Amino acid sequence: MRRAIVHSLADIPATAWDALHDGRNPFVGHAFLAGLEQTGCLREDWGWTPHHLTLWNGDALVAAAPGYLKHNSHGEFVFDHAWAHAYARYGRDYYPKWLGAVPYSPVTGPRLLARDDPARRELLKAIVAETRRLGLSSAHVNFHTETEDSTFDDVWLPRLDVQYHWRNEAGWTSFDDFLAAMDHKHRKNIRQERAKVQRAGVTYRMLHGDEAGDEALDAMFGFYLQTFADYGNSPALTLDFIRHLAKTMPRQLVIFLAERQGQPIAGALCLRGADTLYGRYWGATENSPGLHFETCYYQGIEYCLREGLHAFEPGAQGEHKIARGFLPAFVRSRHWIAEEGFADALRRWCEDETRSVRGYAQALAAHSPFRSSP
Q1: Does residue 372 have a pLDDT over 80?
Q2: CA neighbours within 13 Å on the CB side: how many for 168?
């Protein structure tokens, strides 16, 4: 197979790229990844330079890994700043590195896009070869699926982290069914939170991309900007990207708008996969009691129950999600380190981290709000 580096997904037909995955995860779709490039979301001065690894059999694309050259660790959500500092202490350069990931999206999904395991293994060999060719310190694959674990050999260091996911293992068909599975304390707390929002005169509209006009998209983008301004961070997404999602992924884009007297006051932007809702961004112009939980969690749970979706992943971090029905779930990454000395030291570091993360997840599970494991 012929290896090729692609610097713009516009150079690959969407049908060829999307034939390499099952379409269940919207973040690895051509529309999402190419949209980031085409609408100004990926900036080299922020550390994102497209450097996609592809394998070809003649003119046929047989495997691909969405990838980027990184000059920092901005927007990755698998934190390796300690590794960069270790390199610096020894006078070595950690950056640039190669990253296989979906920018700004801490969402588990396929990262080695191919029709079979032999092609995925060849893709990993190509990633290592390209990392060596460029003289990079390392290659990283973030938020890969559990099923892809077996593709990596032991040279790729495994890391583990925890997120909080809602799963409908019990077959709930309504929000009342979901609440009935909880103990009295947590059930009462959720009902009180929802009642506060209702008493404040807040109502909700759910819009798919093809139902959202410019006014709704502009409002959602404004809420996104507000959140970043509140935390003093720079927003990466553009309004053109939000509009691009609405146009190219019309039924996968899901927006929840909170309104009072017809005026939007908060919103949450989600993407829908085959059986999972992914919460990505939210914002509000006021800080009303319960508004965040209703907009970001309860509206999404109701959507999943109504649409028959199995899972809701509302984003990274947040122990407060446990009390609202989102239980600890492991997320994974793999890391190839060029220098054996650093690789050996980081392997021990990763092993210690994994033991700590597993213990942390076990402790968190003890705080489940459910009367029995759902």
Answers
A1: no
A2: 24
